[in-house]
Specification:
about 50 residues, mainly alpha, 2 helices, 2 strands
Length: about 50
Amino acid sequence: MEYKTADLSSEALKQLRQYEQDLSTDTGKNIVLVAYTQPENEMADEPDADH
């Protein structure tokens, strides 16, 4: 499998940063989240993938 970094909108990036901050606050640790995209041909193999 080859994943590429996700091209996020500014709103999506803002949400991701908020999730990082929330998790960091909740855990007391520095949490960093990374967004990747999964190749479409591999998404069909996932049992609960939304299509």
